[in-house]
Write a structure and sequence with these properties.
Ubiquitin-like (UB roll); five-stranded mixed β-sheet; about 150 residues; 2 domains
């Protein structure tokens, strides 16, 4: 099976029902996407599949053949969202942040100037145990060029 991850083709030999998260972490060594709940509820494992955020812990690898997969490692260090995350000190423990950042990248591609309501709706499936939601929202506004305000 061939997967296109972060712009590179990878041949993997796995059961087609294997969750994408395990292929990314164990076979490809891309450990930025985290295992959180294993049920697609927390967002720690979020990746982009053809530009849309999806939970890799519940996505069988057979469903992503021929699709473009982007992990946190595939988002450039100088991407506006990553820069804003640092500037706004959005992360605390950091465990959920790869999924949060990936979801924010998808949001800004769809809505370059999101309102607070847009951000809340797009990010609602990404849980942060540390409760840095206010800083995450500010970082998204900063990345959108709104200076932390809608």
């Amino acid at each position: 099976m061939i997967l296109v991850v972060n712009g590179k083709e990878h041949a993997v030999k796995v059961d087609p029902e294997t969750p994408l998260l395990w292929v990314l972490r164990e076979q490809l060594g891309l450990t930025g996407s985290k295992f959180g709940c294993g049920e697609g509820l927390c967002g720690a494992c979020t990746v982009l599949i053809d530009g849309a955020p999806q939970r890799s812990c519940v996505t069988p690898v057979k469903d992503v053949q021929g699709k473009r997969i982007v992990t946190i490692e595939g988002i450039a260090a100088d991407h506006p969202v990553k820069k804003a995350w640092l500037a706004e000190e959005a992360s605390q423990c950091g465990y959920c942040q790869p999924g949060q950042i990936v979801a924010a990248v998808a949001l800004l591609k769809e809505k370059p100037r999101p309102t607070d309501a847009d951000i809340d709706a797009a990010m609602s499936g990404n849980l942060c145990r540390c409760g840095t939601y206010g800083r995450i929202r500010r970082a998204i506004h900063t990345a959108a060029g709104t200076g932390g305000k809608p």
